[in-house]
Fold:
Amino acid sequence: MRAKRFVASSLARTLETVVAIITGLIMMPLMIRILGENLYGIWIVIGSIVGSLYLFDIGMSSSVTRYIAYALSQKDRRRASQVMSTAFAIYSALSLIIILTAVVIALSAKFFVESPENTRLVQILILIVGLNVAVEFPFKSYAGIAGYHLRQDLLSYSRIGFKIVSTLIIAWLLFEGYQLIAIALVQLASSFFSNLVFRFIAHYLEPEVRLQPRLIDKATVKEIFSFSAWAFIVDLSRLLKERGDVWMVAAFTSPALLTVYYVGVRLVEYANELLYKAFGFTLPLYTEAVAQEDNAELARKVRMFLRLNTIVAGGMLVGAYLFGNDLIRLWMGSDFKSGDAYLVLVVLLSAKLLVFITAPYSNVLFAIAKHQYQAYVSAAEAACSLALIPILIHLMDNPLFAASIAIALPFVLTRPLIIPHLVSRYSKLPVTLLYQTVLPLTAKVSVFGLTWYLGLGFIGGQWGLVEFFLVTGTYGCSYAVFAYLVLLSGEERGLLLSGIGLRKQTHS
Structure:
């Protein structure tokens, strides 16, 4: 049953991401054409403000997810209710702070808005998006329930529905002559009702876990914050690594080069988003094994997801290496510097996929409440990358390749070496489990990739759009068959077939 739920949740989260990407690709040119570059630029600024307001989460979502999943694993519904009730109180206080912050930012708009005629518009938009984030925060206290039950598919399908409906309403409003304030109000309403459905799903899965103000206590507040403080450092470090390179490239190169660099970065972000939506909800599984003190089950789960992550990441990296340059050329046009953007794509994607492959070890640190070491490592990675960027840009001829190497280099040291040793030190998971699991699969994927590379070498030339889709579609199908027949074990093939409903399960 859990295998089927995992596959269903993975497929639903992947579909949610695909829908979000497609609607984004459709709406961006539509908004630019109807609103104009000036108003759309304002919308981009508002979007960056929304991203900064989410830092007020201060890592609590990871903390709440961990403690609720831990309590449910021990069948302690009262403890789960206590964590949820305490988190609700904290998030409610944070919501008030977010509203006050939004008011302060809105009042300060006149200092960073160039055109005085747009100041009033920006102020109203900041207040609306601030209210949007503030309303969402208390619902975060329900985090962990769907994760424990592996029912993220329910959340994803509800979000897909709201995304499609809100996108259609926004498109209609644009054609009717409405502008940014109407769009922001639609997003506010959509987010509110989506959060209500989130709360309903949590209650449906765990009717005995309820908000009970009498269960709020200082000890739980301290416990949540002691965990979330380190998670916040991890989140902040990730933000610096994901955005710091863009800021540094902007500072040390030209806007034109930054545009080329950002094309590669955006493709890596899409790939990352797909991967983590599909497979990035395994923390409750590790927490369950830790709560039950079942080291053998923990090792089994880590091995399984190391294999799964390697298989998926290998296919994606080989595909990017083989087809990335043509993808960028077809997307951006023949005059674009697709070669430089391709270098950025391959280097950064290699590093991010290394992080993805070794993610089970990082998640175990969270599950055993030793995530402060993950925070130390993440902060060190961010600091090293930001320090290396100006040095390598000065030393290397290609500044974009230099920035990519600077971002990727720390991951090569920390993820396959430092993180596994930390996990081994505080748990019974051996470091060798990583290498014995990943390296044989990597060798097989490399042979597959080399075969395709040699085969494409005989074809040669540049492809049009139709040929590109035909070849990449053939690659995807061939890799799926290769993974099923060669990379997956017999047990894993059985779990896959059970998960998609093609084989009857013999156990849960």
Notes: Residues 225-501 form one domain. The mean pLDDT is 85. The radius of gyration is 24 Å.
